[in-house]
Design a protein that fits this description.
The chain is an alpha/beta fold and 426 residues long. Helices cover 25% and strands 27% of the residues. It has two domains: 135 residues, Immunoglobulin-like (Sandwich), CATH 2.60.40; 275 residues, Glycosidases (TIM Barrel, Alpha-Beta Barrel). An eight-stranded parallel β-sheet has the order 9-8-7-6-5-12-11-10. A six-stranded antiparallel β-sheet has the order 1-2-19-16-13-3, with no helix packed on it. A six-stranded mixed β-sheet has the order 4-14-15-20-17-18. InterPro entries: GH.
Length: 426
């Protein structure tokens, strides 16, 4: 018997089919399908959720971030995110970090001599946010204005290298901060990393600012960003401390292509997934809020508008987290046997598993997006015995869009935003 379900959503019509109750044929077609079966080991859903971060500017109280109590704090809690990236030399900022930390939101701190943070006072700075510090990061993008940056009379790159080394030694010499991971400094242009040379001796994590310039997530990642970043990060695991998209569609002087709010809502969840698939330990989207109600690029990177109202990307990330969230520290040793059929061109996926054993197969099209939805008909053929399944569209809702009993295959129109197939094994 074939059960066909069609569901209509705001972004378009998605046709889903579930096949149940029929013995599997052993004809040629099934033989080929079995030969192409993938037995894939899942990654823990909790590990993916812990890889999601966002940049903030808690000390910029003359911007939208000044609305900490009525916008920033409650929206971060609603978002469900566990990690923020921020920095500065401001006791009030650290007090906000401690307040967020008590609610499960930890901070990665940027340390920079431009904020009068020196190796002599860096430990005291970090202690103000303890015990909620996930990492300490070296200076931010010194290569942008290299001739104006200086440490102990040395400019970029020697001054940056010396600062990182002195900061690292200071943090590791104090018991309170010795076990906090230290990130390498960031480069605006990864080509400049080779001027600094390897900082692996003075960092435990690499650092990357891999913006895609308004193009698909992961643009130029494999041939440019990753190999060039390794020139100064060595073989350290990498954290992307900045990446993102701005919505200043009327800014004509920017070299960073703008995208609409609807396109950001597709690209940002895909960014988290694409980078996770590539082994990035954590990805911080830049940034939480538009800083001011201005039409230029720099004031339009947020997933929340300057007036405090969420953009579509906020809800897309929130729903993705709600669907995939799991208990901290969980593991996923299981594997799922399945294969794709249909139009699989540009199809990407991530397979996750929660502690209760349920699998979550996240799929999307790796394609340039517009406000219009793009879809391709794809079938997920399940060889692992399955008790139940459900589909989710995070850009629409955190609730299931369809549920199925004991399916052997599920056919759906995969869009250019994530669609999730939950599989409950027998």
């Amino acid at each position: 018997m074939i059960e066909s379900i069609a569901a209509v959503f705001s972004a378009g019509t998605y046709a889903l089919q579930v096949f149940t109750g029929q013995p599997l044929s052993t004809d040629y077609g099934m033989t080929v399908a079995i030969a192409n079966t993938v037995r894939e080991r899942a990654k823990p859903a909790d590990t993916f959720i812990d890889s999601i971060g966002i940049a903030t500017h808690l000390r910029y109280i003359d911007t939208s971030y000044g609305r900490f109590e009525d916008v920033v704090e409650p929206r971060l809690r609603e978002l469900g995110i566990r990690h923020i990236r921020d920095g500065g030399n401001d006791p009030k900022m650290y007090a906000k970090m401690r307040r967020l930390g008590a609610q499960g939101i930890r901070s990665t701190l940027v340390m920079d001599p431009r904020d009068n943070i020196t190796p002599q006072n860096v430990v005291d700075q970090v202690k103000q946010a303890l015990p909620y510090v996930a990492g300490v990061e070296g200076p931010n993008e010194w290569d942008v204005n290299a001739e104006r940056m200086s440490y102990k009379g040395k400019s970029f790159p020697e001054g940056l290298r010396n600062y990182q080394a002195d900061m690292f030694r200071a943090l590791k010499s104090d018991r309170a901060t010795a076990n906090i991971p230290v990130l390498a400094p960031s480069m605006a242009q990864p080509e400049n990393g080779k001027k600094v040379g390897s900082l692996a001796a003075y960092s435990e994590l690499g650092n990357m600012h891999s913006y895609s310039g308004g193009r698909v997530p992961g643009q130029d990642f494999d041939w440019r960003w990753l190999p060039l970043t390794k020139q100064f990060s060595g073989d350290r695991p990498i954290i992307v401390t900045e990446t993102g998209y701005h919505n200043a569609i009327h800014d004509r002087v920017t070299t960073h292509k703008a995208v609409t709010e609807q396109v950001s809502a597709k690209y940002i969840p895909r960014t988290y997934l694409e980078f996770f698939n590539r082994g990035i330990k954590r990805t911080f989207i830049y940034e939480l809020m538009d800083q001011r109600p201005a039409p230029d690029q720099e004031n339009n990177f947020g997933i929340i508008r300057a007036d405090g109202t969420p953009k579509p990307a906020f809800y897309a990330v929130r729903n993705l987290i709600r669907i995939l969230n799991d208990q901290s520290g969980s593991s996923a040793p299981g594997s799922l046997s399945y294969y794709f059929s249909g139009n699989v061109k540009d199809l990407r996926h991530t397979l996750l598993q929660k502690r209760n054993g349920d699998f979550y197969l996240v799929m999307w099209l790796n394609t340039e997006s517009t406000d219009a939805i793009k879809t391709q008909r794809v079938t997920v053929n399940l060889l692992t015995p399955t008790k139940a399944a459900a589909t989710f569209l995070p850009n629409r809702s955190s609730s299931a869009t369809a549920t199925f009993s004991a399916p052997r295959r599920v056919t759906m129109d995969v869009p250019d935003a994530p669609i999730i197939l939950k599989v409950v094994p027998k």
